[in-house]
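Work Package 4 report. The design task specified in the project plan requires that, given a folded chain encoded as structure tokens, an amino acid be chosen for each position. We show below one input record used in the internal validation round.
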């Protein structure tokens, strides 16, 4: 049976740590694919600075050439609920009999009980968790081993605003896209 990881986030912008997380999940959980799912407007976080179209374009550039990565835009569509549960239900209906793994950081995993219908989320997908320093995890979790990478989208946006080089933080095509479109300036 195929195994697919779902990696959601704002991806404002996608950066090298996101790609390292996807690769770590592919290996640790023996996944066939990872789908990057950019979030639309939510009630629990500040809106993205880049448009949905720009974030999707950057994701597509970042994953180009890797057939095990894909981009799913459903949470950006008009009327999308923004709930992980609804995304998992739709993916389950479309993909049929596959193992779905929801890929989250330890900080988000610690808040899982506050999510919309967390028991149904767990029923629809296994949870793969990236450890974070200072966040304790129980032994039952599907831990994805990975060295922490001190990258943040907010720092990348700040560097872009200052006109600094982003080459070591994001894939080169993403850096060029940000510069060409004058994102975050």
């Amino acid at each position: 049976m195929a195994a697919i990881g779902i990696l959601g986030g704002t991806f404002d912008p996608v950066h090298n740590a996101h790609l390292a997380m996807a690769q770590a999940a592919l290996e640790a959980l023996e996944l066939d694919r990872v789908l990057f799912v950019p979030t639309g407007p939510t009630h629990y976080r500040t809106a993205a600075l880049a448009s949905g179209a720009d974030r999707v374009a950057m994701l597509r550039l970042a994953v180009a050439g890797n057939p095990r990565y894909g981009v799913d835009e459903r949470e950006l569509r008009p009327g999308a609920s923004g709930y992980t549960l609804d995304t998992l239900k739709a993916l389950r209906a479309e993909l049929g009999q596959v193992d779905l793994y929801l890929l989250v950081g330890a900080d988000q995993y610690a808040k899982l009980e506050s999510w919309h219908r967390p028991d149904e989320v767990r029923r629809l997908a296994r949870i793969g968790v990236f450890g974070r320093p200072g966040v304790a995890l129980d032994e039952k979790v599907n831990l994805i081993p990975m060295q922490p990478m001190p990258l943040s989208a907010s720092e990348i946006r700040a560097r872009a605003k200052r006109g600094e080089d982003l080459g070591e933080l994001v894939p080169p095509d993403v850096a060029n896209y940000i510069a060409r479109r004058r994102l975050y300036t």
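DSSP finds seven helices and six strands in the chain. Validation will be extended to a larger panel in the next phase.
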